[in-house]
Amino acid sequence: MASYISRAAPRAFNTGLRAAAVARPAMRVQRPAAPLFRRFLQVPAEQPRLRLGSVAPNFQAKTTHGDIDFHQWMGDSWAILFSHPADFTPVCTTELGAFAKLKDEFEKRNVKMLGLSADDLESHKDWSKDIEEVASTQMSFPIIADADRSISFKYDMITQQDLEDIPKKGLPFTIRSVFVIDPAKKIRLMMIYPASTGRNTAEVLRVVDSLQTADALGVVTPINWQVGEDVIVPPSVSTADAKKKFGDVKEVKPYLRYTNVGN
């Protein structure tokens, strides 16, 4: 004989479940408590991804030259934003001193410099005295106080290992990042160095010269290019058009043609 279940049975069964749910308090799933620094500092689970050509994230910050809004502070200038692991550290001290010495060169190119270190303002001010003494120069550009690492995370200035160690060690130091940003607030160059390796200020200056020359004249620059040396005519420009624009064009290969723009 075939088994038979009344249509009313499921309805009665569901009614019983609802009654039991009312009578019995709902069970709450206990989630592990977030570490204290995560709850209050809102450390992101994943670092952002920045790309060449994307708009540099804006931010407000306290600096050794007062409070700034980054985009407003830039105005119609180029900017170099570079980060440092910590105040009163040897490599960082030599780096900031070297950049400070190039103040006039960067100003000629309409470039503003902005440093960042993961310490507070008082520490920055005391450290600046050491930088000036060691480098025999004046600290003429501001240093951001990024004690909560909010800007460091926004610009992906954290190593993967430090990111993974946050639950155990707390907030990480920042790495040596360099961002060259144009007046349209677009990121034009990113360079990342390990903490053990100091940067090359001459290379940063060379890159600015290359970018500004390319923007102004519609050319590209070859390996190790310096101002005054031959530049390359991009493949999108015909040799005939290049000769009309630049005069002499030296063709090494149909796709590799040099000219001199005299800058």
TrEMBL record:
PANTHER family: MCG48959-RELATED (PTHR43503), PEROXIREDOXIN PRX1, MITOCHONDRIAL (PTHR43503:SF9). It comes from Phyllosticta capitalensis. The keyword Oxidoreductase applies. It comes from the Eukaryota. SUPFAM superfamilies: Thioredoxin-like. Keywords: Antioxidant, Oxidoreductase, Peroxidase, Redox-active center. GO terms for molecular function: peroxidase activity. Residues 50-213 form the Thioredoxin domain. Thiol-specific peroxidase that catalyzes the reduction of hydrogen peroxide and organic hydroperoxides to water and alcohols, respectively. This is AhpC/TSA family thioredoxin peroxidase. PROSITE patterns: THIOREDOXIN_2. Gene3D superfamilies: Antioxidant, Horf6, Chain A, domain2, Glutaredoxin. InterPro entries: AhpC/TSA (IPR000866), Peroxiredoxin_AhpC-typ (IPR024706), Peroxiredoxin_C (IPR019479), PRX_1cys (IPR045020), Thioredoxin-like_sf (IPR036249), Thioredoxin_domain (IPR013766). Belongs to the peroxiredoxin family. Prx6 subfamily.
